[in-house]
Write a structure and sequence with these properties.
By secondary structure, the protein is an alpha/beta fold. It contains seven helices and six strands; from the N terminus they run βαβαβαβααββαα. The longest helix has 14 residues, at 32-45.
């Protein structure tokens, strides 16, 4: 197992803290690459749970029109149905404002007292983490689990506790949206999610 340990205080007489990863993102739509990352993180870091957190609007993607947040939350619910270790939270999706990771981290630290919190993200986000808001709060509350993508490998950042997972994925939500918009059957999409997309006619008019 990858060394994903981070010091965490124990209450006298209690067992080890629950190990929970927060997985934020647009999930527009959620696809097999997201599920692969979450599954590998759970396996290699011995996580008890991975919480998918679709955002309302990423502050890093201003100007990009995503499917409505309630649709993206429901697609994630369909994708993780039957996975005992996965769940979805609409904490960010219902706020109707740009989501900042430090606010989400503070929320779950309060909602899950005693838990050891991780943040799951890809190398593209990790490379710009110094631009995220309130890095002091992020560093205090989280260990980052970083996954490579498209042959890119994470670089060390001493400001944050982190662990780098081996492997890669090259599934793109943008390519999936384009395929749907051209009436093609996209690869890398759960059948239940694909049915939901078709039923609600999502992405059919998108050109991004």
């Amino acid at each position: 197992m990858i060394d994903c340990e981070m010091a965490s205080p124990l209450t006298p007489g209690s067992g080890p803290p629950r190990r929970i990863a927060l997985f934020g993102g647009t999930f527009d739509p959620v696809h097999d690459g997201h599920l692969f990352i979450a599954s590998e993180a759970r396996r290699l870091c011995d996580l008890d749970e991975v919480i998918f957190i679709p955002c309302w609007q990423s502050p890093h993607k201003q100007g990009q029109q995503a499917a409505a947040s309630h649709h993206r939350v429901e697609m994630v619910r369909l994708a993780v149905e039957g996975l005992a270790w996965a769940s979805v939270s609409d904490f960010e999706a219902v706020r109707a404002e740009s989501s900042y990771s430090w606010q989400t981290a503070e929320h779950f630290a309060g909602a899950l007292p005693g838990a050891q919190l991780f943040w799951l993200l890809g190398v593209d986000q990790w490379d710009v983490i110094d631009t995220w808001g309130r890095p002091d709060i992020l560093a205090e509350l989280l260990t980052f689990i970083v996954f490579g993508r498209n042959g890119r490998h994470p670089r060390s950042n001493p400001a944050f506790s982190s662990v780098f997972l081996p492997g890669n994925f090259d599934i793109s939500a943008t390519e999936i949206r384009h395929a749907i918009g051209e009436n093609a059957i996209p690869e890398g999409l759960d059948a239940r999610v694909a049915d939901y997309v078709l039923h609600h006619q999502l992405y059919s008019l998108k050109e991004d």
